[in-house]
């Protein structure tokens, strides 16, 4: 195919709209809380704007870098090694609310689990590109392919962050399926993971409380069921058109984490069904253009890379929206490009820069 002169403008425009939408909603969701707790209504959105700007600069730079540069053994090994060290490094830091998810340095806070997702995609794209015809060999293909994923997931669950670990598992499964892995391997994986998941969900106190609250949140409306109930109140009171931007009530110290994990609930309350569907439509467009790039790529490495980057974002968005709508139990996971979170928005935009470079190679 002839080489494109420019990147996919539809994809670039969709990403830009999501970032701008996110900044507006972060300000709307956090202004009152930031004023009360930090003395300035702009505290959260200003930080998010800086990271978004840095992320857009990274996107602009990386979409000029030929994606084939990443298709090298040293790049993959260094990326996996650095990510592993960072995931281990969080345990040397002081925890916050019982979790060790961040590396704190003067003036900056990093969340290594966000880096784990694109690095896992890079490793799988590099490893699977030459093994498409050897997917029946579990010793030489399947097992080596899943080892980094298992390592990353184990460290992320230890933080603890089951939501991000599940995103990593989903991305790994989707990329193995794209490569041609047989269904029996997935059945074996589910059987092997089931006891672990059972223990993590029902023998860890706070997760067990969440599972019980998911089934019947009214049993503990001020405890484990609080997140779900407040989220559903926000979604329900928004109606079709919403209360209006900045007019939400649930963000006023009712809805937990209204600018991060539950920002979609704030969107539903203030902008209604119309605003919620607009967000979903933008993610659908992002998914369509990203998967289109994967399908049209003739280079196996580019196909796997584009597919992995796109599915990682879509799986995370699906989980976040499902939590807000009480379709799955509560878990701490952000809405990509929308929720407040510097590391998340920067890493996501940088990954999309790589995806945009791949779109240069297709018609």
Structural write-up:
This protein is mainly alpha-helical. The protein has one domain. The chain has helices spanning 9-38, 43-62, 73-89, 112-128, 138-158, 162-179, 183-202, 205-215, 226-238, 263-296, 300-324, 342-359; strands at 103-105, 108-110. The chain has a two-stranded antiparallel sheet. β1 (103-105) and β2 (108-110) form a beta hairpin. It is globular and about 55 Å long.
Radius of gyration: 20 Å
Number of helices: 12
**C-alpha termini separation:** 7 Å
- Principal-axes shape call: globular
Structural class: mainly alpha
Please estimate the helix content.
55-70%
Strand order of the largest sheet: 1-2
- How would you characterize the largest beta sheet? 2 strands, antiparallel
Order of helices and strands: HHHEEHHHHHHHHH
Averaged pLDDT, please? Answer: 92
Number of strands: 2
The gist of it:
With 363 residues, the chain is an all-alpha fold. The protein has helices spanning 9-38, 43-62, 73-89, 112-128, 138-158, 162-179, 183-202, 205-215, 226-238, 263-296, 300-324, 342-359, and strands at 103-105, 108-110. Strand 1 (103-105) and strand 2 (108-110) form a beta hairpin.
Keywords, separated by commas or semicolons:
single chain; 363 residues; mainly alpha; two-stranded antiparallel sheet; 12 helices; 2 strands
């Amino acid at each position: 195919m002839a080489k494109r002169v420019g990147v996919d403008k539809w994809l670039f425009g969709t990403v830009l709209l999501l970032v701008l939408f996110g900044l507006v909603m972060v300000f709307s969701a956090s202004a009152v809380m930031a004023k009360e707790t930090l003395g300035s209504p702009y505290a959260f959105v200003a930080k998010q704007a800086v990271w978004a700007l840095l992320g857009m600069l990274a996107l602009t730079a990386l979409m000029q870098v030929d994606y084939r540069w990443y298709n090298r053994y040293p790049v993959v090994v260094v990326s996996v090694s650095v990510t592993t060290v960072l995931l281990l490094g969080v345990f040397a830091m002081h925890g916050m609310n019982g979790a060790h998810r961040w590396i704190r340095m003067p003036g900056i806070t990093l969340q290594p689990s966000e880096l784990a997702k694109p690095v896992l995609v890079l490793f799988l794209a590099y490893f699977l590109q030459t093994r498409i015809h050897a997917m029946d060999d579990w010793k030489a293909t399947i097992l080596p392919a899943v080892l980094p994923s298992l390592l990353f997931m184990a460290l992320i669950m230890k933080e603890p962050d089951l939501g991000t670990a599940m995103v990593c598992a989903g991305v790994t499964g989707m990329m193995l399926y794209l490569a041609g892995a047989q269904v029996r391997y997935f059945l074996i994986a589910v059987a092997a993971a089931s006891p672990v998941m059972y223990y993590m969900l029902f023998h860890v106190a706070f997760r067990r409380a969440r599972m019980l609250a998911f089934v019947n949140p009214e049993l503990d409306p001020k405890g484990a069921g609080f997140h779900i109930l407040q989220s559903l109140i926000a979604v329900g009171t928004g109606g079709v058109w919403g209360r209006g931007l900045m007019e939400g009530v649930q963000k006023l110290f009712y809805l937990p984490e209204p600018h991060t994990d539950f920002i979609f609930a704030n969107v539903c309350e203030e902008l209604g069904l119309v605003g919620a569907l607009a967000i979903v439509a933008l993610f659908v467009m992002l998914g369509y253009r990203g998967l289109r790039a994967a399908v049209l790529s003739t280079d196996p490495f580019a196909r796997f890379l584009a597919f992995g980057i796109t599915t990682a974002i879509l799986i995370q968005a699906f989980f976040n929206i499902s939590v807000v709508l009480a379709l799955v139990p509560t878990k701490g996971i952000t809405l990509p490009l929308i929720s407040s979170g510097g590391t998340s928005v920067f890493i996501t935009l940088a990954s999309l820069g790589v995806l945009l470079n791949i779109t240069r190679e297709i018609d």
